[in-house]
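Before we proceed, please read the two lines closing this message. Tell me what the token row says about the fold.
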Amino acid sequence: MTRALVTGGAGFIGAHLVEHLLKHTDWEIVALDRLDMAGSLHRLAHLRDARVRVVWHDLKAAINADIDARIGAVEYVFHLAANSSVDRSLLTPVECIADNVLGTAHLLEWIRRVDDRPPYDPPLVFNFGTDEVFGPAPDDYAYKEDDRFAPSNPYAASKCGQAALGMAYHRSYGLPVITTYTMNNFGERQHPEKLIPKTIRALLTGEPLPIHCKLDASGDVLEIGRRTWLHARNTCSALLFLVDHGVPGEAYNLAGDTELDNLALAERVREVIGKKLYVRFIDYHQSRPGHDRRYALDGTKLAKLGWTPPVAFDESLRRTVEWTVLHPEWVHL
């Protein structure tokens, strides 16, 4: 029986990956999570599958013999555990660095020790990254996998460190590590601090939705942040595709196909719900230092291998909004 470890398995994308692997493979899955504000077993409760085992562990601590025994031998490691909030990283940067850099080092050290204990072979590792490592993208450019890192905030810098560690362990110790970078993910059961659930809550309650932008001296909007959006189901599809088509030591962009500024995205959500949207513009240079106006990834490399997002953006967004309206507890209503 093939077995996979998903770190951050009770997190938003991690739980989607656990569900995707259950649907599309016959693997056993170990979901490793520390169950903090970002991790919730409620994301896994509907699965009710004996092939899933949940192991509690905070990767800021080394994986000891007890946790090692609970995980067992695995053929694949999907490293999705991360402190992924820019705002929290600005308030507590050292904590974010410890989560993402030290946590990755502990995971890779555990894998390296497993490699030294026959009969185990080292598992194939997917080191899950973000478009934010490349910094703000010019309007006419999408970053390729080998572009230089240029982080703008502590969270992005910590993810640079995470990616670099994976590359270094591949080159120094021969661990089979594949690096991925992805765009803004959305989907069901997302943390309510993120833009789409926050927009749904604002529409259902009539509260104004804060939109980060650049304001001039008179308060007029000069520019609004832009993002490319990808449903977590599509991200999971790309990861499973790379199990068969990815090459250790290589990096791959998991890119979406729809770029919108944040106000335009909120309007798309409004069209599904059919309620009036109230907006409050906030200057991001004052409220969020290190904010990048635009992110963009070039998905050509993965597309040439044959992967395309299986679910279109508009359909994904409609499904997500309609599901969340039926499950308002996920936006804290």
In short: Residues 93-115 form the longest helix (23 residues).
